[in-house]
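User: I'm new to structure prediction. If I give you an amino acid sequence, what do you actually give back? Let's try with this one:
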Amino acid sequence: MASYDYVVVGSGIAGLYTALLAQKQGSVLILTKGSIDDCNTKYAQGGIAAAIGKGDSPEIHLQDTTEAGAGLSDPEAVHLLVEEAADRIADLIDFGVPFDTINGEIALTREAAHTVPRVLHAGGDATGEHIELTLSRQVRACGIEVLEHCLATEIIVEAGKVAGVKALDCRTSSIEEFACHSLILASGGAGRLFKYTTNSEVATGDGVALAFRAGAEIVDMEFFQFHPTAVRLPGVHPFLISEAVRGEGGILRNVEGYRFMPDYTPEAELAPRDVATRSILYEMKKTRSDRVFLDVTHLPPRLITTRFPHIYRFCLEHGLDITKGLIPVAPAAHYMMGGVRTNTWGETNVDGLFAVGEVACTRVHGANRLASNSLLEVLVFSKRAMQRRGEGSTRQAMTGSEQDCYSLPQRQVPVSAPPPSLSGLQTLMWEKVGIIRSGEPLEGAAGVLAGWERSLEEASDHDSLQLSNLVLTARLMAEAALIRKESRGAHFRTDYPEPSPDWLRHIVFKRE
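Assistant: Good question. You get back a string of structure tokens that encode the predicted 3D arrangement of the chain. For your 512 residues, that looks like this:
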């Protein structure tokens, strides 16, 4: 069995950045279930938030992040995020990420729920792609070993400590084992749980499922962010229209051409994502349409083509010149705010297991992620995780605000439950555990998911393993949504439409 100091699962920005830091301390292996370039990072259009501009400060950034988090953001984690932001941006510049500039200074834009412009971008709306390509070049140049098309299937835990990981070689169908001192989960989110999603096909909740089965704590799974604006065209996969488009002055109109957002909130188009998403959904229902429209025709065409070249070209390829016509949009699943519970050093409750990026829950985002904080979170807490390992410090106890710990309950399976399938799962989650929730549909979904988990045969290939991981991740999400009897941030229930002070705590799941 090959042995490494560090095994990193995932090749997005979290995996690549962490691997580049880890290789200064020991031997590193990256396992990725696709190619090194298959990840969600490259689809991140908006950019990275950092308080580096005039009139901005870490204190203002902290206030904006905490306000978006609706009472559940961890103060210590948010403080670290905003204070270390500038240094982590400097790291990316040193690696060669070409951030956009104006007159020699880094260009900053404003996104919804940010008080001031503080979002750095590269290539206009191609920030994630530029970071991904830059870091993957660095990984190759450093000679870090990368095994592509290898899907992690099990975390090996011996005497309460990580000893290694098993992985399926998707080309040969063989199971390989890799020993390691530290295992870093950087496997991304679970956007493929839903029928409509901005996520790539790799976002199947693998890291959450792996960690849960290994005894790690999973937290805040009820908080899943839906992006308000994704292109809605027949036969076209939802394509993200960045928050920054509204930040630059884009207006939302219904199918009758009416600007509706001021009717729902004084912040109008710059409202937080959860508010904007629900407002769009209500307007679609009111007008009996499956879409609304984003209007940028009043903005200078040169601004659109240079600031949002990817969006402009994508729409043009589908017959839409957005400088002259409206963009049809609707909400889509976007970002998992819950995940594997970590402390501020990226450590989990399992010795030797770390989690970084979207798979991790640092509790920075709370109940609702502030736009463009996700890439920053990756940088800050990946750096801290490697600092921890480099110093050889004793694992820090898991602390944080009040929480309740649960195990997944036994459930009665509905008699009419359909057989498990990816499309069936995605439809179930969109309709029952989606943007607007209620107790009875959640109960039904939880029962179906419990039945599917029991009926699935032992996973042995790429597709069955991913479906198994998705079903388990979906169960954690549905059960958490059922337990939280209030509405807060991205979690909205019609039977409990208001936030309650009794629920200023976190829901944690751990395997019995």
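You can read the tokens as a compact description of the fold. Here is one thing that stands out. Residues 42 and 128 are 4 Å apart (CA to CA).
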